[in-house]
């Protein structure tokens, strides 16, 4: 937060994260579906005044980039499931999805390096999806009250090397979210 003329003013990133938290609260209460949550979050990151940061020099910028690229990837993944798509159109959506997930993973790695893996816990999560079983892991950033997910092998290896990855799989802290179809 910034202090201007004695008044506390939130910057755009802080506003986004407060809005995101209100969306999460609505989802948890059952006031919105996962699809509605994803759509509202997508609109919040794509149609606001903040764009992804080229230079990630703060953890919040890295976390915003994670959210931005994650929302874009999920939107492309959802678009790829439209019934009447041809092979080329579907492939284009999935290629875009993979690109955005790779950018999300880049932001994740940058954040982990910036915090020097301090206050981090990570483990594989129990999922219903056969495709993600044994691949999806949860990264808890305790000092930032943030939960990230990835399947990226480079991130997995770095978490193991830093001694913050626990073997075995656990129920996700947001199990009701990650195991719900949209």
Structure, described:
The chain is of the alpha+beta class and 182 residues long. It has a domain at 116-182. The protein has six helices and six strands, in the order E-E-H-H-H-H-E-E-E-H-E-H. It has helices at 12-29, 34-46, 59-79, 87-114, 153-161, 175-178, and strands at residues 2-4, 7-9, 120-125, 137-141, 146-150, 165-170. Strands 5-4-3-6 form a four-stranded mixed β-sheet. Strands 1-2 form a two-stranded antiparallel sheet. The N and C termini lie far apart (34 Å).
Could you give the distance between the termini?
34 Å
Q: What class would the helix/strand composition place it in? A: alpha+beta
The mean pLDDT is: 92
Rough shape? globular
Count helical runs: 6
Strand content: 15-25%
Strand order of the largest sheet: 5-4-3-6
Order of helices and strands: EEHHHHEEEHEH
Tell me the helix content: 40-55%
| Low-pLDDT residue spans | 1-9
Q: What's the count of strands?
A: 6
Rounded to an integer in angstroms, the radius of gyration calculated over CA atoms is 17 Å
